[in-house]
Amino acid sequence: MKIDKSKCKKILTEVPASCKVLINRLKSCPESELVNTLKEITVWEYGKCELYHWIEVLDRFDGLLERVAKPEANESQSLIYLCRRLEEKQAKHLVYYMLYFTALLMEHAYARHLYSSIEHLTTLLAASDMDIVLAVLNLLYVFS
């Protein structure tokens, strides 16, 4: 579910410069290059920031997760759909690195309550790919 900006308290703090560069890079990066862009980020070097500043990136990720985790209207069995989507190497890598990056972001952000893709995470817990399940569990662990 996309983050409703109207319900968020407007943050008056300035976005750190390094975060701003990364946010713009992730927003404008073509989907075909997003995996490689996310792969490059293995350690957080961007300082603490407000999650509010990352809403557009998180909304983009939410849309991509929804495409993988939510079945089409004509699909009656969502788990079969999920397994079939994750068999596509590009989709699996994209989901994995989005989850990995999101966990890094959550560790270094304030106002984690804004994150609104939990329904996709619960669906991904049923995936047959253990790398995806472990990435989901890692992200959920960061919230605890």
Characteristics of this structure?
7 helices, 144 residues, mainly alpha, globular
Fold and architecture overview:
The protein has helices at residues 17-28, 31-39, 55-69, 78-87, 89-107, 118-124, 130-143; strands spanning 49-50, 109-110. The chain is mostly helical and 144 residues long. The protein is globular, with a radius of gyration of 15 Å. It is 60% helix and 3% strand. Strands 1-2 form a two-stranded parallel sheet.
Give a brief outline of the structure.
With 144 residues, the chain is mainly alpha-helical. The chain contains seven helices and two strands; from the N terminus they run H-H-E-H-H-H-E-H-H. The chain has helices spanning 17-28, 31-39, 55-69, 78-87, 89-107, 118-124, 130-143, and strands spanning 49-50, 109-110.
The gross shape turns out to be: globular
- Please state the structural category: mainly alpha
Radius of gyration: 15 Å
* Major β-sheet profile: 2 strands, parallel
